[in-house]
Amino acid sequence: MQILSSVKKALELLDHFTVERPELSLAEISREVDAHKSSVFRVLTTLKAAGFLEKDSLSGKYRLGLKILDLAGRVWGRYDIRQIATPYMEELARETGEVIHLAVLDGSDIVYLEKKGQGQGQVLTVATRLGGRNPAYASSMGKILLADLSKSELKAIFGRGKLEKLTPNTIDEIPKLIEELARIREQGFALDNEETFPGIRCVGAPIRDAGGKVVAAVSVTVPAQRMDDKRVRELWRLVTNTARMISERVAASKMEA
C-alpha cells in the first residue's frame, strides 16, 4: 500500500485539534508535530484554502473549518441506525431517568452516534459527546461489539499486549477480556463496572441487523451510587428490550429498501 506522506501529515495535523484545545497557533502545532514552522505553515495554508481550517484574524490561531462539519454530516447520513434508534432511546431515557448512548465500533474504539436523556450527574454530560471515542474494551457497548468478533479479528485489534488500565476496575489483560466477551455472548448483555470512568456504571445490549450481525450497541449510563444489583436487573431488562426493538426496526428497514 502506497501512502502519500504529505496527505498523511495533513490528516495527522487535523487530529491535534480537540474539544479541549479547539484553537492552536502555528508555534504550538509545529512543536506538537515536531516540524519546522515553514513546513507546517504550508500545510496549514493548504488546509485553510480548502476550508478544513479557519484562522482567527485577531489571535492568529487556527481552528477546524466548516468543511469538517460538512464531511461529518455526510458520514452521519450513512448511519440510518441513528435515526431509527432515536425514538426508542428517548423512550428509554424517559422510563429510566438516565443517560442513554448509541455507539458503533471503529477499530479498538467505540464512537458515540447518539445520546439521549439528562441523568442526574453532571459528569455524564461532560464525559461523552457525539462523535467522541472511548476504548471499546472498557465499556459495556464496546464489549458488546467486541463479543461479536472472531478471535482472529480481536487479535488484529489488540495483538498480545496489555491494555491500558483506565480505572482500578478496567480489564487490562487480553485473556481476561476474552473470558469476559465469552460471558457476554452467552448472557446477551454487558456491564461496565466503573471501567472507563470512576463512579459510572453502564448496562449495554446489542443491536443486530437482519442477518444477526451486531452493528451497534445501546446502553444505560448510571452513577454507581444508584446502581445496586436490583437496579442492574431492572435496567438489563429495559435496555435489552430496547435493543431488540431497534434491531427489529433495522431489519425491517433493510427489507423495505
List the main descriptive attributes of the protein structure presented here.
10 helices; 257 residues; 2 domains; Beta-Lactamase; Arc Repressor Mutant, subunit A; three-stranded antiparallel sheet
Write up what this structure looks like.
The chain is an alpha+beta fold and 257 residues long. The two termini are 35 Å apart. The strands form two sheets. It has a six-stranded antiparallel β-sheet with strand order 6-5-4-9-8-7, with helices on both faces. A three-stranded antiparallel β-sheet has the order 1-3-2. The relative contact order is 0.11. The longest helix is centred in the last third of the chain and has 28 residues, at 229-256. Helix content is 48%, strand content 19%.
